[in-house]
Amino acid sequence: MILLVLAKAPVPGRVKTRLCPPATPEQAAAIAAAALLDTLDAVGALPGGRTVLALAGDPANVRCGSELTSALRKVRTVRQRGSCLGERIAAAHLDASAMLPGLPTLQVGMDTPQIDRGLLETCRRRLHAPGVEAVLGPADDGGWWALGLRDPKAASAIVGVETSRPDTGARTEQALRRRGLRLALLPALSDVDTVEDAVRVAAAAPMTRFAAEVGKLL
Q: Residue 148: which of 104, 98, 211 has the closest Cα?
């Protein structure tokens, strides 16, 4: 299975801007970098998983520590492409599949640093269950945090789905079902957009780098 991580390069002023204030742009970027590292650790721990990072932004501009710089050098990376998020998601699935053909994809982002190997195992089992062609993980804010596809080309089904809406998750589910995909839902998670989200997720995953960085704001 391809573990596809969709992320932005954690550059101050370009990521997690809704955390500012109370965070400074540099602190917000450090929180984003910590979340990305935690996510890469989680997907890297899944036996048989093949990690691909779909990155927006220039990793050369990352100024959040040598640990992330080193991690980015070690992971397969494709550049995000497309004019909207739906196009970038579909392209990322295609590009990852071209790099590692014949494998299903499970996409996550950098906004759920609480994910772990056990949860990813659950996602893989559901995607490989008889009669299932896609899985979708709803987010508590109405969006979604994970998308798994037996056929990565099927990601084109969601190109036209509007994002950052309270019904984005429901619209995504409808688009996948209209495509004729047999869909199973994953456990719901809280993703990180606001400071309140960050505090809640940090409390749920207190041993993560993310929680340590969030703790510096409190």
A: 104
